[in-house]
Write a structure and sequence with these properties.
Strand content of chain B: under 5%
CATH architecture of chain B: Orthogonal Bundle
CATH class of chain A: Mainly Alpha
Chains: A mainly alpha (about 260), B mainly alpha (about 290), C alpha+beta (about 375)
Structural class of chain B: mainly alpha
CATH architecture of chain A: Orthogonal Bundle
Order of helices and strands of chain B: HEEHHHHHHHHHHH
Helix content of chain B: over 70%
Shape of chain A: globular
Strand order of the largest sheet of chain B: 1-2
Oligomer: heterotrimer
Number of helices of chain A: 12
Bound molecules: adenosine-5'-triphosphate, magnesium ion
CATH superfamily of chain B: MetI-like
Number of domains of chain B: 1
CATH topology of chain B: MetI-like fold
Largest sheet of chain B: 2 strands, antiparallel
Number of strands of chain B: 2
Largest sheet of chain A: none
Structural class of chain A: mainly alpha
Order of helices and strands of chain A: HHHHHHHHHHHH
Radius of gyration of chain B: 24 Å
Number of strands of chain A: 0
Distance between the termini of chain B: 37 Å
CATH superfamily of chain A: MetI-like
Helix content of chain A: over 70%
C-alpha cells in the first residue's frame, strides 16, 4: 500500500517536472540546431546561431539597454523603498495605514494598466518615450516590492539595535548609515535583485513606453515575428542563463542569511 | 508644550523619509491613473481626441458583442487556468513538503521553479516550439501512432491555457509549499492520535488549514493571468482574443486611447470585484 | 564613574494604559538596585524613562543631582543592556564594544585596546574578531554588557539581561554581574521578575506592581519586613491572617483567631494604621512545631492536608482548627516524615511575625 502510494507520488513528480522542463529543454536543445528550423530532427550541435546573436548589434544594444534600465530603476526602487520603510517603521505617522496601502497599491494592478496610464500621461504632457520612461515605469512596479521586503524586516529587535546605537551616542544619520542600512542589507539586496530580475524580464511596460532604444524583451518580441528560428532559441537560452545566474546569486545570499539565524 | 513640539518635529522627520516614495507613487501611479480615467471619458473622433465628457466608450464596450466576447474569453481562460494550476500544484507541493527528505526539499523546490525565471516572452516562444505543427509533441504523437495527422495546437485557446498553466504551476507550488511548511506537524499528529486516518487527516485538517494560502495563490494567479497580453498573443494567436489583446489593438493599430482606457478600467473593475468576492479568504495583510 | 538616581513623581500613560503611577524612588551612587515585579507592571517603562528612551507624562528624573528629564538617551550618563542584547549583527565583537567610543571620536588604537580590555573583563578575551551570530546566548549577554560598560557610564541599566538564559547559566551570570559591578563601581539598575535573582544580587530591591512602587529596601528588610501584602507575597510564600489591632501601653496587641497577643509597636509596617483592621503575615519556614513556649504566638492544632518533598524542606498545607479549617503553608524539616492526615501543633516566634495594614481593593497587575 505504502509502496504503491510512494510510487504514484514519484511518478507524479516526474511527470510535472517533465512538463515544467519540456519547453526549456526544447528551447536550449534547438538553439544548437545546424539548420534553419528549430524542429525535430536535431542536426546539431552547432554554435552558429549564438555567433549570429552576438554579432547582431541590435540585440547586444538591447541587452545593454536592459541591464542599464534594470540596474538603475532597481537601485532607485531599493533606495526609495528603504527610506519609506524606515520612516513608516520607526516613526508614528498620521494615516500610516493609508500610506502603506498607497505604496503597495501598484502590486495589485496589471502591468498593462500601469503602462497604459503612463503612456497616456507622457503623451499628454509631451514627454517623449525613451529608456528613461521605461525606467520610470519599472521603478513604479518595483518600489512596492522593495518597500514591502524591507518593511517586513524592521521588527522590534531591529528597533532595539538602533536604540542601542543611539544610547551609545550615535546621531540619527550615524544610526541610519552605520547600523540600520548595514543591518538590513540582506533585505535591501533581496529587494534589489528581485527587482532586477523583474525589470530585466518585463515586456509590456517597456513595449508601451519605449521608442527607438528598446530593451531586450521588446527586441526579442520583434524577432519573434519572424516565426520559429534557431536564432530566437539562442537568444532565449542566453536570457535564461542570465536569469539563472541572478537567481543563484540571490539564493546564495538568502541561504547565507538563513544559516546565520 | 515642548513635548508636543518635539513630537511634531519627530513626525516631520519621519515623514521626510517616506515622502520621496509617496511622491513617486503619486506622480507615476496615481496621476497616470487619473489621466487614464479622464481619457476613458473622452472620445477619439477622426484621428483627434475630443475633450468633452461622455460615457460612450463604456457604452461601446458593453454594446458590442466583439468586446464582450473578449471579456468572456478572458474570464473563461483565466478561471480554467486557475483551477488547473491549483490542481496540479497542490499535490506537487504536498509531495515535496511531506515525502522529500528535509535536506533535499529546498533543492527540489528550486528545481521545480527554475524555469519561472526564464524570460516571460521567451517562455511562451518555447511553448510555441513544442506545440508547433512539426514540433516535438506532434512528432512524438505521430511516432507513437496516437494520431494520424499532426494536431493543431499552436494558435489555439489550448495553447494559451498550457502556457499559462506552466507558469502558474510553478508560482503556486512555491506559495502552497510555503503554506504547508508553516503548519505545525503537531496538527496532523494530534488528529492521528484521535484516530483519524491519512485521508481524513488531509481532508479535515491539512486542507482547511492551507485553504487560505491556496486562495491567496489562486487570486494572484487570477490577477496576473487576466491582465497578461504576452501569452495569449504568442500562443493563442489572433483567434479568440482576450481583453488585453483587444486593449493592445486599440492602442496600437487604432490609436484609440480613450476606448483602450475604458477597457482597462473595466478590467480593473473585474479584478476588484473578484477581490471583494474572495476577500473573506484573502488575508493579504501581515498577520 | 558613578552617580545616584532620583525618580520624582513619575507617571506615564500609553493611551488608556497607565504604565507608571506617581513613582518616586532614589538609588544611591554605586548601588546595585533591582526593579522587581510581575510581567507588565511597568519595569521596562521605568527603565526607559531613566535611560531616556521615553519621556514621562509627568514627573522628573535626576541623575547625579542634574535634571535629565528632557534629555535623549545619547546625552545621559547612562547606558542600557537590552533584553534581546541588541548587538549590531553586522559588526565584529570588537567593533560592537568599541561603537560608543567611536561615536565619542576616541582614536582607533585606543578604542581597540579599550574594547579588548572590556572583553577581558567579561571573560571573552581574544574573541574580538568573532561575529555576534557565532556566540551562545550567555556570550552575547556578556558582549552587550561589555559594550554598555565601555563608555564608562555613571549608571548602567539592565533590562532582564538574564531572562533568556537557562537556570544554571543564569545563577552563574548573577554572580559574575555582581562581581563586575563591585569592580567597576557603577550604579546598576537591573530589571527582573525573578525574586531569587533579585535577592541574590541586589543591594536594594524595588518591588513594583501595576505601575506603583510597593516597597523599597535591602533584600533582607524587604523579605523579612515587607511593607505591603503584595511585596510579602511576591518575595516568596507567605500566610495571611486577618486580625484586629488594639493599642496597649507602648505597644499594640493583636486580636484574632489565635487569641490576644502583645507585640512591640515597631512590628507594624505602617504605624499610622494602628487601630482597626490589619493583617498578620508569616513565612512558612517560620512556623515551628510543638507546644508553644511562653512568649510565642500559639497557632493551635491543625491537620495536614497535603505534603510534598521539595529538597531542602517538606512543604505542607495544614488546616488550622483556629481558622475553622482555613489552610496555611508550613515548611517542615527535611528529616521529618509526616503522613497526610497527621495532627500537628504549631507556634510562631513573634519576632518573625509581620503586621500589614489591611488592604481593601487590592489592585493586581493586569496580564
Ligand atoms: N509601547 C506601548 N504601547 C502601549 N502600551 C504599552 C507599551 N509599552 C508598554 N505598554 C503597557 O504598559 C504596561 C507596562 O509595560 P512594561 O513593558 O513596562 O512592563 P514590564 O514590567 O517590563 O513587563 P515584562 O516583565 O513583561 O517585560 C503594560 O501593561 C504594557 O502593556
Ligand atoms: Mg519588560
Amino acid at each position: 500500500m505504502r509502496r504503491l502510494a510512494d510510487g504514484l507520488a514519484l511518478g507524479y513528480v516526474v511527470a510535472v517536472y517533465a512538463f515544467i522542463y519540456l519547453p526549456v529543454a526544447v528551447l536550449v536543445l534547438f538553439s544548437f540546431q545546424e539548420s534553419r528550423l528549430p524542429i525535430p530532427p536535431f542536426d546539431g550541435p552547432s554554435l552558429r546561431w549564438y555567433a549570429a546573436v552576438f554579432a547582431d548589434r541590435r540585440l547586444t544594444d538591447a541587452l545593454a539597454n536592459s541591464l542599464l534600465v534594470a540596474l538603475l530603476s532597481s537601485a532607485l526602487a531599493a533606495l526609495l523603498g528603504f527610506l519609506a520603510a524606515y520612516g513608516l517603521a520607526r516613526y508614528r505617522l498620521p494615516a500610516s495605514g493609508l500610506q502603506r496601502a498607497l505604496l503597495t497599491a501598484p502590486l495589485s494592478v496589471s502591468y498593462l494598466i500601469i503602462g497604459l496610464g503612463l503612456l497616456i500621461m507622457f503623451s499628454r504632457l509631451g514627454v517623449p518615450r525613451s529608456l528613461l520612461t521605461v525606467g520610470i515605469g519599472h521603478t513604479v512596479i518595483n518600489l512596492p516590492l522593495c518597500f514591502a521586503i524591507t518593511y517586513s524586516q524592521m521588527g522590534a529587535h531591529q528597533e532595539n539595535v538602533e536604540r542601542a546605537a543611539r544610547d551609545l551616542g550615535a546621531r540619527e544619520w550615524q544610526v541610519m548609515l552605520l547600523v540600520t542600512a548595514p543591518m538590513l542589507l540582506p533585505a535591501i539586496l533581496a529587494g534589489f535583485l528581485l527587482s532586477v530580475t523583474f525589470s530585466w524580464d518585463e515586456f509590456i511596460i517597456a513595449f508601451l513606453l519605449s521608442r527607438f532604444d528598446v530593451t531586450l524583451p521588446v527586441e526579442i518580441w520583434s524577432l519573434l515575428r519572424s516565426g520559429l528560428n534557431p536564432r530566437n532559441n539562442a537568444v532565449g537560452s542566453v536570457v535564461f542563463l542570465f536569469s539563472f545566474a541572478l537567481v543563484l546569486v540571490m539564493e546564495l545570499l538568502l541561504f547565507r542569511r538563513g544559516r546565520r539565524r | 508644550m515642548a513635548a508636543v513640539r518635539a513630537a511634531r518635529r519627530q513626525r516631520l522627520r519621519g515623514f521626510a523619509f517616506v515622502l520621496p516614495a509617496l511622491l513617486w507613487t503619486a506622480a507615476f501611479f496615481l496621476l497616470p491613473f487619473a489621466f487614464m480615467v479622464a481619457m476613458s471619458l473622452w472620445r477619439r473622433v477622426g484621428g483627434r481626441i475630443l475633450e468633452s465628457w461622455t460615457l460612450e466608450n463604456y457604452a461601446d464596450f458593453f454594446g458590442r458583442p466583439h468586446f464582450l466576447e473578449g471579456l468572456a474569453n478572458s474570464l473563461e481562460i483565466t478561471l480554467t487556468v486557475t483551477v488547473i494550476s491549483v490542481l496540479f500544484a497542490y499535490p506537487l507541493a504536498w509531495i515535496i513538503a511531506e515525502k522529500v527528505p528535509e535536506r533535499w526539499q529546498r533543492a527540489a523546490l528550486m528545481l521545480a521553479v527554475l524555469p519561472f525565471w526564464t524570460s516571460y516572452v521567451v517562455r511562451s516562444y518555447a511553448w510555441l516550439l513544442v506545440l508547433a505543427h512539426d514540433g516535438v509533441v506532434n512528432r512524438a504523437l505521430l511516432a507513437v501512432g496516437l494520431v494520424e495527422a499532426p494536431l493543431v495546437l499552436a494558435s489555439t485557446r489550448t495553447a494559451t491555457v498550457i502556457g499559462f498553466v506552466h507558469f502558474f504551476v510553478m508560482l503556486l507550488t512555491l506559495t502552497i509549499y510555503a503554506n504547508l511548511r508553516q503548519l505545525s506537524p503537531n496538527y496532523a499528529r494530534a488528529a492521528a492520535d484521535l484516530g483519524a486516518g491519512p485521508v481524513r487527516i488531509f481532508l479535515h485538517v491539512i486542507l482547511p488549514l492551507t485553504l487560505p494560502g491556496v486562495m491567496v495563490g489562486a487570486f494572484l494567479t487570477f490577477v496576473l493571468a487576466i491582465g497578461d497580453y504576452v501569452t495569449p498573443q504568442i500562443l493563442g494567436g489572433n483567434n479568440e482574443l482576450v481583453l488585453p489583446q483587444i486593449i493592445m489593438l486599440q492602442i496600437g493599430r487604432r490609436a484609440d486611447l480613450p476606448s483602450a482606457s475604458a477597457m482597462a478600467i473595466v478590467l480593473m473593475a473585474v479584478v476588484t470585484l473578484v477581490y471583494f468576492a474572495c476577500a473573506r479568504w484573502l488575508r493579504l495583510e501581515r498577520a | 564613574m558613578t552617580a545616584d538616581v532620583e525618580v520624582l513623581g513619575v507617571s506615564h500613560r500609553f493611551g488608556e494604559v497607565a504604565a507608571l503611577r506617581d513613582v518616586t524612588l532614589s538609588i544611591g551612587a554605586g548601588r546595585f538596585a533591582v526593579l522587581l515585579g510581575p510581567s507588565g507592571c511597568g519595569k521596562t517603562t521605568l527603565l526607559s524613562v531613566i535611560g531616556g528612551f521615553l519621556f514621562p507624562s509627568a514627573g522628573r528624573v535626576r541623575i547625579a543631582g542634574r535634571d535629565v528629564t528632557g534629555l535623549p538617551a545619547a546625552r545621559r550618563p547612562t547606558t542600557t543592556v537590552f533584553q534581546d542584547y541588541a548587538l549590531f549583527p553586522h559588526m565584529r565583537l570588537g567593533a560592537n564594544v568599541a561603537f560608543g567610543l567611536r561615536m565619542r571620536r576616541v582614536p582607533r588604537a585606543e578604542r581597540e585596546a579599550r574594547a579588548e580590555a572590556m572583553l577581558r573583563l567579561v571573560g571573552l578575551e581574544g574573541m574580538a574578531a568573532k561575529m555576534p551570530h557565532e556566540l551562545s546566548g550567555g556570550q552575547r549577554q556578556r558582549v552587550a554588557l561589555a559594550r554598555a560598560l565601555a563608555v564608562e557610564p555613571e549608571v548602567l541599566l539592565l533590562d532582564e539581561p538574564l531572562g533568556a538564559l537557562d537556570l544554571k547559566l543564569r545563577r552563574q551570570m548573577q554572580d559574575e554581574l555582581k562581581a563586575i559591578q563591585r569592580r567597576v563601581g557603577t550604579t546598576f539598575v537591573h530589571v527582573t521578575h525573578d525574586q531569587e535573582e533579585a535577592m541574590a544580587i541586589a543591594d536594594e530591591i524595588v518591588v513594583m506592581n501595576a505601575g506603583r512602587v510597593m516597597d523599597q529596601g535591602p533584600p533582607e528588610r524587604v523579605y523579612l519586613r515587607p511593607r505591603s501584602r503584595f511585596s510579602a507575597a511576591f518575595m516568596g510564600e507567605a500566610n495571611f491572617v486577618p486580625v484586629r489591632l488594639r493599642r496597649e501601653g507602648d505597644g499594640i496587641a493583636i486580636l484574632g483567631p489565635f487569641g490576644t497577643h502583645p507585640l512591640p509597636a515597631e512590628r507594624l509596617a505602617d504605624p499610622a494604621a494602628t487601630g482597626g483592621r490589619a493583617e498578620l503575615a508569616f513565612r512558612p519556614e517560620h512556623v515551628n512545631l510543638g507546644d508553644a513556649p511562653p512568649g510565642t504566638l500559639d497557632l493551635g492544632e491543625g491537620t495536614v492536608r497535603d505534603i510534598a518533598f521539595s529538597g531542602s524542606h517538606r512543604r505542607a498545607r495544614i488546616a488550622l482548627d483556629a481558622l475553622d479549617g482555613g489552610e496555611i503553608v508550613a515548611y517542615l524539616p527535611q528529616a521529618m516524615e509526616v503522613s497526610a492526615t497527621a495532627r500537628l501543633r504549631l507556634h510562631l516566634d513573634p519576632a518573625r511575625a509581620i503586621l500589614l495594614p489591611a488592604e481593601d481593593g487590592e489592585s493586581r497587575c493586569g496580564g
